[in-house]
Automatic annotation (TrEMBL):
Chief subcellular location: membrane
CDD domains: SLC6sbd_Tyt1-Like
Pfam families named in the record: SNF (PF00209)
InterPro entries associated with the record: Na/ntran_symport, SNS_sf, YocR/YhdH-like
Localization of this protein: Membrane
SUPFAM superfamilies, sorted: SNF-like (SSF161070)
Membrane topology field: Multi-pass membrane protein
Source organism of this protein record: Pokkaliibacter plantistimulans
Family: Belongs to the sodium:neurotransmitter symporter (SNF) (TC 2.A.22) family.
Organism superkingdom: Bacteria
Transmembrane segments: 18-35, 47-71, 92-117, 155-174, 186-206, 226-250, 262-288, 308-334, 354-377, 397-419, 440-458
Name this protein carries in UniProt: Transporter
Amino acid sequence: VPAVGTSTVKRGFWSSRMAFILAATGSAVGLGNIWKFPYITGENGGGAFVLVYLLCIAIIGIPIMMAEVLIGRRGGHSPINSMRTLARNAKLTPRWVWLAGMGVFASFVILSFYSVIGGWATSYVLTAASGQLSGQSADAIGAMFSGLLGDPVRLLIWHSLFMGLTMLVVARGLRGGLERSVTILMPALFILLLIMVGYASTTGHFGEAARFLFQPDFSRLTTQGVLIALGHAFFTLSLGIGVMMAYGSYLQQDISIARTSVTVSVLDTVVALLAGMAIFPIVFANGLEPGSGPGLIFQTLPLAFAQMPWGSVFGTVFFVLLVFAAWTSAISLLEPIVEWLEELDGMNRVTSTLLAGGLCWLLGIASILSLNAWSGFTPLAMFPLFEGKTIFDLLDYLTANVLLPLGGLTVAVFAGWFLKRAMLEEELALPQPWFGLWYSVLRYISPVAVAIVFVYNLV
Ligand code: PFF
Ligand code: NA
């Protein structure tokens, strides 16, 4: 067991509130917003699902993000050592550290398939840049995508490239430089999404898409849909895993945890909703199926790039920015695993990166094969909840909808019920009634809501 505070990482402070927001936004905004949110919204019937997702962000996500950042700043170390310090200071059992251990495990599993999807996005940089998209029909674009999924060797090459780039940054500790580039690339992504929304509004199906996304039809919402909305709130905000704890440990004392958490959550949500408004008009204009699954953005946006003026240029820039957004998220997943290995074993950074990244890469191969050779292999099909789910589907489903909410629930209980109220008040420095509101939501509403959704899905 490592002693407290033996982290080999030099601890400094974020130069400003802005730097924390950039890093946290870099982790939050990623494939979850642009790839996952639109397709799970399509699969779960639209409006009612979106409403539940937004509620989960507001009453579960934001309070838990505040708790994570608070634990990180108060603990001042990596998630494991922060939990250890706070548990010891509050005279609690060191078993609370297992929470952070579970986070490391979840990061590992998520990164394995996240990198495969990051690989798809990377391959589309080349597809767009080479002009292959221009003038293509919906069918041709669909066939291109199926061709990619059906080819394990190509998938492996792109997965390896994406994982390699992620490992490179983590091994060399380049995060600082990368985060500075977020200042340019995030606003650029935002502007490009606005352009895509602008293009989508010329398809004549904008109203239909807006109704699909924002007009709740509760008859289309299932119990499982509620769990998926909840799980996605955790996934998209990078919660329940220790990432925000790790980033919080660098946050200066005089900066408001509440304001920064709200800012990051709002930015993340806006990007997801813009992605939805860019994609669904194209879906309806071309008679595509909203519930067609993980390929949704790779079959819709390329269609826009095929038709719009300067489509190859916009397409290339868009996929470059998407890869960048995915990259900053992937780095935030790999960092904690590497830091944990360093602390555990005194292993150096390069060796720990090679080990952690190499294992993620290896597990990623199972996700790649799920898309082709093993597409009929559904190991947990005997449970109705997991019917038809491949290994890739299961890794995604179980991390987002089980591990992350469970991690978040534990954080809420730890901060809300076991840490001293006076300490929480001091850290948050919120005026009344805001502190009281946060405290009650964290103690009663967030954990109970997560528990109810869990129980309903198991029964
Ligand atoms: N929040 C990222 C996204 O929306 O793409 C994914 C993610 C990153 C999840 C880091 C969890 C995490 F710890
Ligand atoms: Na996100």
